[in-house]
Amino acid sequence: MNKNVERAKEQMLSALRSQPSWPWVAAAGVVLLILGARSCVSLDPGEAAVRVNNLTGAQEVITQPGLVLRLPFGIHDVHILDVSPQTFHMRGQANRSALEVKELEVRASDGSNFVFTDTTILFRAMPGRADAAIRDSGLRYAYYEWMLPYARAILRDEFGRESTISVSNPTNFGAATERARKRINELLVKHGLEVTSIVTPRPKFSQEYENLIEARNQAENQLAVIDSDLARARTERERKLAEVERDQNKIIQEKRAALESSLAEAVTNQTQTWREVDTYKIEKVAAGEAARAAAKGKADELSGQLLAEYATKKAQIDAFRNQPVERVMERLGERLKGVTIQIQPFRNDGSPTKIQLENLGGGQ
User: Fold this and answer.
1) Cβ neighbours around 39 below 10 Å, total
2) What CA–CA distance (Å, rounded) separates 341 from 338?
3) Alpha-carbon dihedral of residues 346, 352, 358, 361, nearest 10 degrees?
4) Which of 6, 36, 244, 364 is 20–30 Å from 229 (CA)?
């Protein structure tokens, strides 16, 4: 029997050696192509992949577009996640899908209600945190489910802090929108999601309040026109003030030039006058000094003459005093020649003490 078995093996091997080899090569190539195709995953722009090693449990996030290698036989699993920007709408009267839900109704801090008819939120799965998005949300588009509860609750909370009057101001509800975006991101980032933008339309109020808002807008428009007119009037006023100031400056400059010219002329006249006064003073002082010197000389001369006459008279008096009585009487008689003396005693006194002389007939 062993011989028969050996003979059958040899016949089979010879039969196989006699067959051509290219079908086997082709079959092997096809198998390799199938394995290669199943071992690679194409990653498009706007997508991220998470490759999971089922042997070790390691996860790798891939964000670069291209082919992603995946080992067959369950060694690797590759999960594709759409990380392109997504749009979440809050509009209408009912929920239509995960990305389109009922409009946002808010109760303001003063108790009134208002509605945002179409609130749009732009969000996406973060490419670098695709593993967290898949881990916490699930595969493919399961992360959409995070938006509805967080967005509605936080937007209601933030806009509910505003009053009806303040929320009608675009600046105020813009600030509330930014606060809401930051709060939503604080909750979603740890799940691999982020909100990039929240667009809210003007809130819709009751018809009565809408009419009041319209009236206020008209008043604000009128106020803007008034402000524009005031600004234009202010500009015109400043222009006219500038013109007046320019003209007044010109007049002032002309007056200043004229006054400076008059001042220069007055200073010149003053200098000339002072020069003339100084000249006149010098001349008068010189003339006065000359007259004083002449008068002083004349006075000295007269003083000398008087002193000489005084000395002569004194000498005569002294000489007359030393003469005898007879000579004195003689001289007195010469002087009294032609003079009649009437003596009338005032008392019976033989020795009169007073004699009154009268000049009669022009006697000397």
Assistant:
1) 17
2) 10
3) 110
4) 244
pLDDT score recorded for residue 278: 86
From residue 52, give the alpha-carbon distance in Å to each of 72, 75, 94, 150.
12, 8, 39, 30
Dihedral over Cα of 250, 252, 253, 259: its sign: positive
Q: Is the pTM of this model over 0.70?
A: no
Domain with CATH 3.30.479.30 in the chain: 84-205
Q: Report the Cα–Cα distance between both ends of the chain, in Å, rounded.
A: 229
Q: What is the pLDDT of residue 198?
A: 87
The neighbouring-strand residues paired with 93 are none
Point out the residues of the chain with pLDDT beneath 50.
1-2, 5, 16, 25, 28-33, 35-37, 362-364
Which tokens belong to 309? 């006459």
Q: Are 195 and 123 in contact (CB under 8 A)?
A: yes
- Cα separation, 223 vs 77, in Å, equals 66
Q: How far apart are CA 133 and CA 126, in angstroms?
A: 8
Q: Which of 120, 116, 99 is nearest to 167 (CA)?
A: 116
Pairing verdict, β 100-101 and 86-91? parallel
Q: Which among 162, 158, 144 is positioned nearest to 101, based on CA atoms? A: 144
Classified as helix, coil or strand, 48 is strand
Phi and psi at residue 102, to the nearest 5°:
-60, 150
Structure tokens at 193: 């999601």
Token code pair at residue 184? 């939503």
Task: Give the separation between CA 133 and CA 277, rounded to whole angstroms.
Answer: 111
Provide the CATH topology of domain 84-205: Tetrahydropterin Synthase; Chain A (3.30.479)
C-alpha closest to that of 40 among 2, 11, 78, 7? 78
Q: For 318-344, b where at least 16 C-beta lie within 10 A, e where not — what string? A: eeeeeeeeeeeeeeeeeeeeeeeeeee
Cβ burial of 154 (10 Å; 0-12, 13-18, 19+) is buried
- Inter-residue contact 194 to 124 (CB < 8 Å): yes
Question: Using an 8 Å Cβ cutoff, are 351 and 363 in contact?
Answer: no
